[in-house]
Structures are given as structure tokens and as C-alpha cells.
Amino acid sequence: MFDCAAQSPYSLGNRFLKGALIRKKATTIYDIARQAQVSVSTVSRVLNGNSAVNAELRVRVEAAMHDLRFRPNRVAQTLFHHRSHTLGCVLPDIVSPFFAQLFLELEVGAFERGYTIILGNTVSTPALERTYLQTLAERQVDGLLYLGGLTNALEVAPEDLALLRDLAERLPIVTVNGDLPEVGIVTSVRSDEAGGMRALLSHLRAQGHTEVAFLGGQADVTSTAEKLQVYRELWPAPPVGWVQLTGLDIDAGMRAFGELMGAARQPSAVACINDLVAAGVLTAARVRGLSVPGDLSVTGFDDVFPSRITAPPLTTVNHNYAELARLALDALLLGIEGRPAPRTVTVPTLLVGRDSVAPRPA
């Protein structure tokens, strides 16, 4: 039998034992009190943000914490203040450039306000979305930023509505570019997607494009329905094959363009549901030997990073991401503090003109 006691001083077991023996003892508030020459109750009041502490004593306590490299116990502070200074964020796909861009702005803005964010990436799976909603509430986040998923669904199942109502009673919720009208959320903060689509189509018309197809999107998603409604205001009866709700990614753009090429009549321009679909259209057009914008003008939507590096760069609509994130965080913090917040906030979008649109050939 192997004798542990006979191991060499350099064996794995002794190295772990040595590490356990020499590990530095964690600094406590008693150590801080001794170093600062104040009472333990004074240290406690400083840690808990009590404004009644004498300024000189506060400076001494903070200096002692710095010298001793003291790190406050976040769990204890959460129990005392009933605040974790943590926000939850649920979104369907962090790989999507749109959600990645928006989450980046939210995360930076939260950090500037003294909060950290726990991300729940649902990979567009309803069961995982429900799990994250429940888990984040159990983690005692102070509030929830909710993007996509159920907030964009045209219809929400009764059991999901019950879950969401229960959640809204337990913590403040702000939806971003979506809404839950039958749930008691704090605020719905949305970029003006309808206004952005209207500006995009008006831009195409100003370039002489009176025949425009609508490519990409999902019939059961509110943002698709909203943009399609704006499109139908200008083209209430487009030719067969000019509206292709094939999805939201690059492959969806390639499929939509392939279907469009089978239509009896061809448009001079296409308005895509987003930049990824537009990138797919550019790829498919190139394969067929078509020039963009010489033979066909193409627009995207979202102004995510790929829109700047496609060939040609895409004319698109920017969601005003920084402002969208700022107003969403402002509304959520109002909800956390129990102060009134506007039920809906609309953020203007920005038309971005690039090289994928040209005047219609004579």
C-alpha cells in the first residue's frame, strides 16, 4: 500500500498541503477596525454606505481597506441592502451581430452605473429561455433586460404569460426592441424600426426605384410584421414572388434571392429585413453575374459590422445603439428604485447611405 506520509517534500500531496498551510487568511472588518483605530460598528457603517459617518473616520477606514486589500463580501451586502448590483439580460443569440452590438452597449452602460450583467443566451430555444428567466430571478438580480424571444412573438402561450406575470411581480423588467403588453413590465424601449424602414424605402424612391421587393424575415416576429406593414403602405399589391419571408440569416438571403429570380417580373431594388439577409443577396447576385448597384440596388437594416465590409458596403439603418442602451438602463434603474418610468420609449433610427444603392438606370 502506498504510504502518504512517506511522500517526498516535492510530491503533489505535500505541495497541496503546503499551499493550504501558507494561504493568507482573509482580511475581516476586525482587522480593518484595528488598522484604522476605529470601532467595528464604524467600519460596518462605512461598508454599508451610511452617510452619518464622520468624514475623517471614513477616510481612515477606506485607507485601511486599501492597505489590507480588503474585498467586501458581496453576498452579505446583498442581504443587507436587498440589492445585488447585478442585472440579468436574456437574449436569443449572442452570435447575431445585432444582439452582440446591443449587448455590448448595455454591458458598458451598466458598468458605468455600478452594475454587472449576467447574460442568458437562449440560442433561440423556448425551453432555455424559460429556464433563464427563472434562474436569473433566483440569482436575485436587481432587474432584467429582456431582448427578443417572447418579447418579439406575435402570440404568447397562456403558460408563458403566467410565467412572465409572476416574474414581473418579483423584479422590474425592461424590454428592448420588443414588448410584453399583457405583462406588468416597467418600460418597452424600442428603436423606431417602422420609421427607419420608411426612410429606407423613401430613399429608394428618391433614387427612382418604384419597383422594390421585400426579402427575409419571419412571419411570427413583430419586427418583421412592422417592417412589412410599412412596405405594403407603398406597395400594397406587389407582384407574386416579391415578398420572401425566408428567415434572418445569410442563407435566408440567398434563398430569397433565388426565389425572386423566378418571378415573372424583376424589381430594380430589394429591401432586406436585415444586413445578414442583404449579405446573402449580394452573394447570390454575384454568383448570377449581376452588378450591385449597377443592375440591382440592395438595402439592409441594423448597421452591424458586416454591412461595412460587404462588397459593396450596404445602405442600411442604424438602431442608434448607444442611445437605445442608455434609455433602457435608465428606465430599469428607475424601476429598481421604485420610481415611475415611461411605459414606452421610442429611439429615432438613423439612415446610413453607402454604395449598394444607385439611381435606377434610365
From TrEMBL:
GO molecular function per UniProt: DNA binding
InterPro entries: HTH_LacI, LacI/GalR-like_sensor, Lambda_DNA-bd_dom_sf, Peripla_BP_I
Keywords: DNA-binding, Transcription, Transcription regulation
All residue ranges annotated as the HTH lacI-type domain in the record: 27-81
Protein name, per record: LacI family DNA-binding transcriptional regulator
Organism of origin: Deinococcus petrolearius
